[in-house]
Amino acid sequence: MNIAVLTIGDELLSGELADTNTQRIARQLSPHGYGLRESLSVGDDRGDIEEALAALAARMDVVIVTGGLGPTVDDLTAAAAAHVFGLPLERNDEALSLIRQHFARLGVNMHPRNDKQAMLPRGAALIPNPKGSAPGFSLTRHDAFLFFLPGVPAEMATMLDESVLPALRQRQGGQPPRQEKLFQVFGLSEPRVEELLSRNTLPDGVQLAFGVDFPLVIVKLRSARPDAAELLTRGESQVRQVLGDFVVAAGGQTLAENVARQLTDSGSTLALAESCTGGLISTWLTNLPGASAFLERSAVTYANSAKQDWLQVPEQVLSEQGAVSEACALAMAAGIRGAAGTRLGVAVTGIAGPEGGTAQKPVGTVFIALSAADREEARGYRFHGNREQVRILAACMALDWIRRYLLTRPAAELTAPEEPR
User: Fold this and answer.
1) How high is the pLDDT of residue 420?
2) Displacement of CA 85 from its chain's centroid (Å)
């Protein structure tokens, strides 16, 4: 099935907004066995939209269109679709009812301009929008199945899951064209992962692919065979055997989600003391629902005074060994755990750059520490990259320390991660 994405909006071409919809659509389709053949972005110009729709409908099986369904004058997608496919543009009473219901749920008056969102090509099938005012619609033309969705990412993603994917599966007779398993690897480079897996032949009928989502390497196993489920299960067993604890998450799960699940399942509680990561670890964890079950508190102790006042780091440690040191990291982890009364205390302190490094402690120097009743350990790392990359690497490493502790693996045995590529 040849699938294309068409994103519409001047803001995408001017750089005002990034086209995140194409990436999101590709990621949502991939686990279900669908891949994109082509993607295209055009501005809010009716002629350009019509030209793109005609070209894609002529050579693609499926076209997923996002953007241009709003109530303003520059929202031209429905009118362009009607014209290029020779259909009248008319008010769809069912669409108008859905729009009115949306504003009624919000308890606000609908602006008269929102009536425009109910003007659709004749014969269009409605796609409900549970999160916004603009209903989507679908058309079949030139043997192509076209889906028109809003450009708002959250609305588009929900409608893709609830309406578009079921329609694709129905068109395929209920069978996915390809099955896939994904694994996230931390601590090994992409070439090293490929080298390790190439030494171990995967089952016939399983294809191997790779990707990088810094600083993680993504391992992809795919199969289109009728016995794909059984083949991929065997392939997963082999991947885990070869890569071991470097596999930090699987499927659509993230490292933070995996750590959150481990903490919850084990009944463990956590307190964090962050310096150079500036709250990044706690942000990742609290982005997840239910984080209050395991995260008791998080302190961003950037200044030395905060480390002393909140974490009881001894002044002697700060004056003699410095805030970026193994001793300081240990004191931070122990201090936050003692204050919170949690099972685990984890601390991160370092120099993210671009300034502040010295010959003894260059930019990228980071110390991580873990404090628990049965274990206290700390280790220094030298991470490479810009400020953001150093902070992300430090946060991922700290999460991996927690993951390994809960797996009863010594975290300090983990060396600095290799470059992803």
Assistant:
1) 57
2) 36
Sequence-distant (≥ 6) Cβ neighbours of residue 350 within 8 angstroms: 275, 276, 324, 364, 365, 366, 367, 381, 383, 390, 394
Average of per-residue pLDDT across 131-151: 94
228: three-class secondary structure by DSSP? helix
> Domains along the chain?
3-171 (3.40.980.10), 179-250 (3.30.70.2860), 255-413 (3.90.950.20)
Distance CA 156, CA 149 (A): 6
pLDDT grade for 409, boundaries at 50, 70 and 90? low
CA torsion 193-195-200-202 (nearest 10°) is 60
* pLDDT at residue 413 is higher than 60: no
DSSP 8-state class, residue 381: E
pLDDT category of residue 245 using cuts at 50, 70 and 90: very high
- Which residue intervals of 142-209 are DSSP H helices? 153-159, 165-171, 190-198
Amino acid 33: pLDDT = 83
Nearest to 167 by CA among 181, 147, 184: 147
Q: The pTM is what?
A: 0.79
Distance CA 201, CA 12 (A): 43
Q: What is the pLDDT of residue 5?
A: 98
Whether 161 shows a pLDDT value over 60: the answer reads yes
With a CB cutoff of 8 Å and minimum separation 6, the contacts of 361 are 322, 324, 351
The C-alpha atoms of residue 128 and residue 163 are separated, in whole angstroms, by: 8
Q: Decide if 148 contacts 78 (C-beta within 8 A).
A: yes
Quick: pLDDT tens for 279-311: 999 999 999 999 999 999 999 999 999 999 999
The answer to whether the beta carbons of residues 375 and 405 sit under 8 Å apart is yes
Cis peptide leading into 112, omega within 30 of 0? Answer: no
Higher pLDDT, 171 or 87: 87
Cross-strand pairs, 216: 213
Helix (H) or strand (E) holding 210: strand 207-213
Q: Which residues of 382-417 are buried (b: 16+ CB within 10 A; e: fewer)?
A: ebebeeebbbbbbbbbbbbbbbbbbeeeebeebebb
